[in-house]
Amino acid sequence: MSEKWKNKVALLVFTVPTLLFFTIIVFIPILQTFQKSFFDWDGLSTPIFIGFDNYLRLFDDPDFWVSLKNGLIFAFVLVVYQIGLGTILAIVLSSKAVRGRKWFKTTFFIPVVLSGVMVSQLWIAIYNPEGGLLNSIFAALGMDYQQAWLSGEHTSIWAIAFTNAWQNMGILLVLIYTAIKSIPEHLYEAALIDGSSFWHTHRKITIPLLSETYKFGLIIAITGGLNAFQNMFVMTNGGPGNISYTFTFMMYKAAFRSNEYGYGSAAAAILVIECLLFTILINKFVAREKISY
Amino acid sequence: MIKRLTNGTLKYGSLLLYVLVSLYPLVWLLFYSFKDNEEIFSTNVFGIPKEWRVENYVNAFQSFDLIMYFKNSFIVSIGTVALTVLLGLMFSYASARMKWGLSNAARIYMTAGMFIPMQIILIPLLMIVRSMHLQNSYLAVIVPYAAFQLSFACIIFYAFFRSLPKEIEESAAIDGANVYRTFFSIMVPLVVPAIASVSIFVFLFAWNEFLVALVMISDNALKTLPLGLLYFQTQFSSDWGAMGAVMVLSTVPTILVYLLFSEQVENALTVSSAVKG
């Protein structure tokens, strides 16, 4: 066999298994989800083509609008908490005067590595209306905020989203912190001479230079919020009623509880389109120019 | 001077405040795993247990098959890591070190998985698994986990392979090593740090994953820890102390793994975020 042939064979040996595996398990199923969303299908018998009926049914379903709203609230909470608070903590942490940075960083990251089910269960106890940690803190402070966080119509989705934001804030913190550390020192020296204040300096220098990181952070926070499922599944089972539903929850319920696989696929397809839309918007409006120092 | 002092206090103050927000719920969990319901919710909500009720842990062990769930999660996680690392290394080596026309396109195709939520493919995936009779085998979750983690692994491995000097393969070729030997005995050992990062990240992912496991695994004997926790919650919902004990026990391994390898986890995270969304 010639050298050229050997190299060609080697290339196929190295790439084909991975590409094939990824295509069969990830790529083709995505297409199938879209395809099946146009069918009436119980998962066993032959699917019947029904055009856009599943989508029309979705738009008529009160669960759909609640899910849409909840996904957006969830995304909003993640963005504010993880990117907002993450930025503040990362800036404070990166200042030279602070010692024990590694320890702080590790501590803030610990909730990230826990299982989402366990964290959800922990927060069920924290939100417990009868003497849970949160209500007890309000009582101890003499504040009249005690309530049934998870079953309240106006608090439920916020409380659930907060749990997720609390757990995963460390991811954004580490990313933003690392990005700040890569900003060259000399950019700050000029500001120091000008006598500009701590927060002013960071607002004018640090934050604009983080736009690439923010782009990535916004994508994971927003798509993470839109995709929310396990927190509500464990904490409220979507209820009471449908007040903590999301698209993934609708898909799960339709497909795996009522065997309406076509309808479930339509909910999943809407979710993909929604995530794609946000990713395109973020790419369009955040960090359009390449950063160079 | 005074300004610097207050500045310092403010900085440490805000950081320590968040340490409290971040850790106290976990410490609170540790405390309540030794309490009874009355202490948890009324007589002693915040503090150290008045009486350390080890029986919560005994109850937990008796009514919760912790060893089985640990074993299942361990097999699933190791299987996922092995498959992801092997396929990811081979593909990334080809895309970073070999010259071929579609190299760039194939690499971008593989990274797309980073931005696709797993639940999208859940329905077709269940059909694949059913038709291949993989239901109620560990492969029913290992296969989708590995497929989705491949994107992340390829990004990290590609970055590492690219950073190695070109001369390595040249001298290996002069020594007469073929491409497979060069790959396994020269290139792979050079990217061990990347393998460590990817392994830990993927391990933690597989250990904690919930939704795919929920849909794919129905046989109780194959359930992973998150499913076990859910089962325990529905069965023993009124015994908060024992529930807390189960939660503590299930959490200790992940925290230990993280504390031992926190550097690798953070590195993997930062490298993967450099990919264009």
UniProtKB/TrEMBL annotation, chain A:
CDD domains: TM_PBP2. Keywords: Cell membrane, Membrane, Transmembrane, Transmembrane helix, Transport. InterPro entries: ABC_transporter_permease, MetI-like, MetI-like_sf. Residues 68-282 form the ABC transmembrane type-1 domain. GO terms for cellular component: plasma membrane. It comes from the Bacteria. The chain crosses the membrane at residues 9-31, 72-94, 106-126, 157-180, 213-233, 261-282. It is a multi-pass membrane protein. The keyword Transmembrane applies. It is found in: Cell membrane. Coiled coil: none annotated. Pfam families: BPD_transp_1 (PF00528). GO terms for biological process: transmembrane transport. Belongs to the binding-protein-dependent transport system permease family. This is Sugar ABC transporter permease. It comes from Paenibacillus solani.
